[in-house]
Amino acid sequence: MESKAVVLLSGGLDSYTAAAIARQEGFTLYALTVRYGQRHAHEVQAARAVAGALGVAQHVELDVNLSAFGGSSLTSDIPVPKDRPVSTTDIPSTYVPARNTVFLSLALGWAEVIGASDIVIGVNALDYSGYPDCRPEYIAAFERLASLATAKGVQGSAFRIHAPLQMLTKAQIIRKGMELGLDYGITHSCYDPGAHGRPCGRCDSCTLRAAGFAQAGVADPILSR
User: Fold this and answer.
1) Cα separation of 96 and 144, whole Å?
2) 157-188: pLDDT as tens digits
3) What is the pLDDT of residue 41?
4) Is the pLDDT at 1 greater than 80, yes or no?
5) Which of 93, 42, 30 lies closest to 200 in space, CA to CA?
6) 181 and 17 Cβ atoms separated by less than 8 Å
């Protein structure tokens, strides 16, 4: 019997790696990319490339315009923080209020429709920017919610939220991706890229990515393109 999984695919290296791990585990992938009004829309193009590389069964791009609310430097004109030490205790302005809750809810709805019991998300709780919706306790709570809030759950079937990167460093994630033969040159991580998608090299996401590749001892292929 086919095992389906809905994967939240942003176009970044974390979601790419998490999806590849799910594929290795035998899941047929259904990729969901949300265009949420983010200023770094180049990631949507990257998500298409990643979906193609993964050979997903279906890739849905959904418009949910969170920029109508604002409240984040990713969905408004608030400046993106740059050239700062990345902290896991201070919540930065790049935090998008309730973003992962919105995304996981959409993934849950699609999973129930296609008969999938598994949802994959590439959150990380070690080398990250301190977002509250990346923590293990949040993922566990949403998994519980999924069984309470759906017809499938009420009928006795459990949903599982897979977060395989949660307790890995960025370097460990990159090494895992290299083992799986992933081409990180097609991914996009920058919060504030240039007109042609060139990473700024100074935002939190660029800083974490650069440190991860340096610690993994490999060159970031996106910098040579």
Assistant:
1) 23
2) 899 999 999 999 999 999 999 999 999 999 99
3) 80
4) no
5) 42
6) no
* Dist CA 101 CA 107 (whole Å): 10
Residue 9 is encoded by which pair of tokens? 């695919």
Indicate if the pLDDT at residue 225 is higher than 80.
Answer: no
The DSSP-derived string for 32-46 is EEEE-S-S-THHHHH
Of 159, 60, 154, 164, the residue nearest 118 (C-alpha): 159
SS3 state at 145: helix
Cα separations (Å) of 49 from 71, 84, 133, 182? 29, 31, 26, 12
The number of beta carbons lying within 10 Å of the beta carbon of residue 214 is: 14
Mode of pairing for the β-strands spanning 4-8 and 118-120: parallel
Domains of the chain: 4-224 (3.40.50.620)
Q: State if pTM tops 0.90.
A: yes
Distance of alpha carbon 67 from alpha carbon 69, whole angstroms: 5
| Kind and range of the H or E run holding 181 | none
SS3 87: coil
**Distances from the Cα of 6 to the Cαs of 34, 188, 211, in angstroms?**
13, 21, 29
